[in-house]
Write a structure and sequence with these properties.
The protein is an alpha/beta fold. The chain has ten helices and 20 strands. It has helices at about 105-110, 115, 125-130, 150-160, 180-185, 200-205, 210-220, 240-255, 280-290, 305-310; strands at about 15-20, 20-25, 30, 40, 50-55, 55-60, 65, 70-75, 85-90, 120, 135-140, 165-170, 190, 225-235, 260-265, 295-300, 310, 320-325, 325-330, 360-365.
């Protein structure tokens, strides 16, 4: 029996909160949240480390706690078509349901919850902090919010009460059973498509590609969540012209040409010994994606104004100029349409661009 609909019980942030998305199998609990389907015995934790069996009940040990809060530019998520130039209150917890050897946030995602989670708060306080700092949204990021779904969903509900939107930055490794409730709480998502072969996912991520493709196609076709996708290009691992060609052709057909795609540069980190990504690789991959019919393709983690700016899919006019996280010339009208030809730009836009820029501000809700 699924515990998805059970009432919320009082929360003790030192021991965790009752979780959903599981069922009992004998004296063990089967997690239904991600495709790992961990079978967790009494006193044990799932692969993600933050979901535990305590007294025959699944608990989320990181509920109500965070490794810290920062106000970031929304383009850092990265989201280029979701209220450009605005600020976003970002936070994460600890743990992850993937085992990426190249993790760029390994100090958080690979941490035990007791090592990193020093800030305790509640959903209403987070929503107020975002509103009071003028943020367009709250981002669940730094580690994957799928593993703290109950906490993210509750925060999202509080945000909507005060007019603040919510963003999931995720690897999309979630089951068909859990993803409707999780993504119903989100206004936008950036999903990491880490590579495009099962071998890459199994060898470097301890995961599988198939469920990620399913999540992406479902988001694009079945939901109103604004979607953007990021692929970190790692030299010699997932950056070959053949793999990029296969990925972008699938992408254009399965997700549609209007879903923005970000190619970002890898830098050596955690357990993978690979060189940093040359800028030329990003430029080549971007052109391959454009040739495949994807209309909005970006480069990241490098200085490339051309590759980071947004162009009208109708007439080719540069409608949003970007230099890293700083916006320049803005050529959209108040409806989010190109001033030259009148074609609407896919995305979510305010009447005027935000002015947050590249600043980063630490806050305590």
């Amino acid at each position: 029996m699924s515990h998805e609909g059970r009432a919320r019980e009082p929360i003790d942030t030192l021991t965790g909160a009752p979780a959903r998305f599981y069922h009992a199998e004998g004296d063990r609990l089967r997690c239904e949240l991600c495709p790992r389907a961990c079978l967790v015995g009494e006193g044990q934790r799932a692969f993600c480390f933050v979901r535990a069996n305590r007294g025959g009940q699944m608990v989320l040990t990181t509920y109500g706690r965070s490794s810290g809060f920062c106000v970031d530019p929304i383009e850092k998520k990265p989201l280029n078509h979701f209220y450009p130039g605005s600020s976003i209150l970002s936070f994460g917890t600890a743990g992850c349901n993937l085992g990426c050897k190249f993790c760029q946030n390994w100090d958080i995602s690979k941490a035990r919850d007791s090592d990193r989670l020093q800030v305790a708060t509640d959903p209403a306080a987070i929503a107020r902090a975002a509103r009071d700092h003028g943020c367009s949204a709250v981002a669940f990021t730094y580690n994957d919010p799928v593993i703290f779904a109950e906490w993210a969903i509750d925060v999202a509900a509080a945000c909507r009460e005060v007019g603040v939107k919510t963003v999931a930055v995720t690897a999309g490794y979630v089951t068909p059973a859990a993803r409707p409730e999780f993504f119903a709480a989100m206004d936008a998502a950036n999903v990491d498509l880490k590579g495009f072969t099962e071998g890459f996912y199994r060898r470097l991520c301890a995961a599988e590609l198939g469920p990620v493709k399913d999540t992406l196609a479902w988001l694009a076709r079945e939901t109103s969540v604004w979607l953007e996708v990021t692929t970190l290009l790692i030299p010699g691992e997932n950056d070959s012209p053949a793999e990029i060609d296969a990925m972008t052709r699938w992408y254009a057909l399965a997700l549609g040409p209007e879903v923005p795609l970000h190619f970002t540069a890898y830098h050596p980190d955690y357990k993978l010994d690979a060189p940093a990504t040359p800028s030329a690789t990003l430029v080549r991959a971007r052109q391959q994606a454009l040739d495949a019919g994807i209309r909005h393709v970006y480069t990241g983690n490098v200085h490339d104004t051309d590759g980071q700016s947004t162009y009208c899919a109708g007439c080719g006019t540069r409608v949003i100029e970007r230099d890293w996280y700083q916006l320049g010339a803005w050529h959209l009208d108040e409806r989010g349409a190109c001033r030259s030809c009148g074609r609407a730009l896919a995305g979510r836009f305010a009447a005027r661009p935000g002015t947050w820029g590249p600043k980063r501000l630490r806050v305590v809700p």
